[in-house]
TrEMBL record:
This is Sulfur carrier protein ThiS. CDD domains: Ubl_ThiS (cd00565). SUPFAM superfamilies: MoaD/ThiS. It comes from Cognatishimia coralii. Pfam families: ThiS.
Length: 65
């Protein structure tokens, strides 16, 4: 399905947010996620179903100052 990931349209074969993160190479990375501007906590990603055209934001924490 077509998803918009961090502003870029991508074809991703995944039914859930957790599967999409695996396909996109994030696997077990510590990231924050939102789907259609709604925050999705790590514990809910496996049950968060995706639909064609969903907008996913993936943000990695930064260190330093």
């Amino acid at each position: 399905m077509k998803l918009i990931v961090n502003g870029e349209v991508q074809e991703v074969a995944a039914a859930t947010l957790a599967e999409a993160l695996d396909v996109l190479g994030y696997g077990e990375a510590k990231v924050a996620t939102a789907v259609n501007e709604d925050f999705v906590p790590a514990g809910l990603r496996a049950g968060h179903a995706l639909s064609d055209g969903d907008r996913i934001e993936i943000v990695a924490p930064r260190q330093g100052g």
